[in-house]
Specification:
By secondary structure, this protein is an alpha/beta fold. 25% of the residues lie in helices and 26% in strands. It starts with a strand and ends with a helix.
């Protein structure tokens, strides 16, 4: 398991670039953390680091999934906010399995809603808010993250 520290908002871009170095060939990333931990904020910083020039400032809470394309690599990126998903049937209704199997980069907030259908090689990212307001990203397998 790897960890990335984000002491403040000014360190987001650097943390996103550090995260890029951990991504390898993985395509599905599950971001877990309490409400307000910074999942959307980090995913937006990561999208910018991946070359998305349009500012992906919002969470796809109401649309459930936003689609971005890297302006540097043309890579397709799907950003999911599954907070409003109440069961797997609703996830299937939006075609989540097609997204997960597409080979495109899938960045998923509230992954616990669909944990049973995530690929075995999903990279889990737990975002913890520390007492001083800093964020700690722990990056690993589902088992490693669950053991925290």
């Amino acid at each position: 398991m790897k960890q990335i520290m984000i002491p403040n908002a000014d360190a987001l871009a650097e943390a996103a670039h550090e995260f890029l170095g951990l991504m390898d060939d993985a395509t599905v990333f599950a971001f877990d953390g309490e409400m307000g931990a910074g999942k959307t904020t980090f995913i937006n910083a990561l999208s910018r680091a991946l070359g998305v020039e349009d500012d992906p400032t919002g969470s796809p809470t109401f649309s459930i999934v936003n689609e971005y394309r890297s302006d540097t690599t043309a890579e397709l990126i799907y950003h999911f906010d599954l907070y409003r998903i109440e069961n797997l049937e609703q996830a299937f209704d939006i075609g989540i399995e097609d997204y997960l199997d597409s080979g495109a980069l899938c960045l998923i907030e509230w992954p616990d809603r669909v944990a049973d259908i995530l690929p075995d090689d999903t990279v889990w990212v737990k975002i913890d808010v520390l007492p001083d307001g800093a964020r700690r990203l722990s990056v690993g397998t589902a088992e490693e993250i669950a053991a925290l």
